[in-house]
Amino acid sequence: MAKKAMETGLDKVVALCKRRGFVFPSSEIYGGLNSIWDYGPLGIELKNNLQRLWWNAMVHQHENIVGLDAAILMHPDIWRASGHVDGFTDPLVDCKQCKTRFRADDLAMEVCPECGGELTEPRNFNLMFKTFMGPVEEQAATVFLRPETAQGIYVNYQNVINSSRMKVPFGIAQVGKAFRNEITPGNFIFRTREFEQMEMQFFVKPGEDGTWMEYWRRQRYDFYLALGIPDEKLRLHEHKGDELAHYARAAYDIEYEFSFGWQELEGIHNRTDFDLVRHQEHSHKKLEYFDEIAGERYLPYIIETSAGLNRSMLMFLDNAYTEDEIDGEKRVVLKLHPKLAPVKAAVFPLVKKDGLPEIARQIITELRPHWNVFYDQSGAIGRRYRRMDEIGTPWCITVDYDSKEDGCVTLRDRDTLAQERVKIDELPHIILDKMK
Description:
The chain is α+β, with helices and mostly antiparallel strands. The protein folds into two domains: 3-74 and 145-317, 2-Layer Sandwich (BirA Bifunctional Protein, domain 2); 343-435, Anticodon-binding domain (Rossmann fold), CATH 3.40.50.800. It has 14 helices and 24 strands. The chain has helices at residues 5-8, 10-20, 41-60, 76-82, 84-87, 150-154, 157-164, 209-226, 274-283, 309-320, 356-367, 381-391, 403-406, 427-435; strands at residues 3-4, 23-25, 37-39, 65-67, 89-94, 101-103, 123-126, 129-133, 141-145, 170-179, 194-204, 234-238, 250-258, 261-270, 289-291, 296-298, 301-308, 321-326, 329-334, 345-349, 373-375, 395-399, 408-413, 419-423. A seven-stranded mixed beta sheet has the order 4-10-11-17-14-13-12, with helices on both faces. Strands 21-20-22-23-24 form a five-stranded mixed beta sheet, with helices on both faces. The chain has a three-stranded antiparallel beta sheet with strand order 1-18-19. Helix 4 (76-82) crosses helix 9 (274-283). It is globular.
């Protein structure tokens, strides 16, 4: 009976990520840096695969959505206009005894949960990282590491209209780093101080925002289903009452049942014209859109889809982690969707002699232009299979002595363990069909 990560706990996923090169603690040889992570050879492949799939779904599959890569450092007045300088805060309390720090809104008690000590009064703590631009710190301008990527889209929206001839409704997508000085980061790469966002801001005519809100809510939910997340592990949470942000007319979170509970994965928000109004007021630049057909000017409403790339990656790892037993031996396997898998196929010569490695190398040469593939000739064939199962490789290809005679190899499926003999020259087409 297979056991999923929800049963085995997050610790096993974390251990696998370190052991096999998905995620490493940053600056580890210096003792690490709290809640900062580096992505290893397999981690960057998984992250890049997820980013490309998101970009394809959001940009390439929509003729009215284009991309952007805005700078991390932006004019500080942008963050004043957006409200981040004055309002991007969390309530912070400290334990007077053990000095542990907490978010006040996370505590269900009035004493320290660590030692029972007395807590300080809550005080607001701004989550933005500050730095200085200029040669002398005392005279330099204060700038901020962006806490979100959306503002870079809003201040560029007219540049995009003018250069790309976009007409409402249209969207601007962006993937990029953001930084938040979180008080209580945790759960591995779920909540970190440096992270990546995948955001798309969709500009619509006021009055049509409700229709587009529903459209993007369905699109984003279906994206995760198509990549293998079970429907019973996803849910929509509607923001109501005090939950609703001051700028939002409506908001939904797509939540996933992690091994540590239900958590937000992505937000879909109807931001109305709040952001463009604020930037128009503070920049003193007209940001109205001219509708040539209707002959009118207006500030578009914005439907936002905002997903965390890092926490999405953790979701797929959490969902994919499986333990089972084969011939009395425990097997750890990542049942990742083939499109997400860091390595798509591994090629093994049965032995390291008699011309089998040469055939295997030729197969690698044929497949590598299409996918990330791996060559391994060390150890027993069963052990090589297990190594690939553990990193989520969907297919293993074994070259044996019969391959020299019949031009066929054994193709093994990671999940079903089924093995079939296939022609070497048909491998690219077979794998492509299976990917689909």
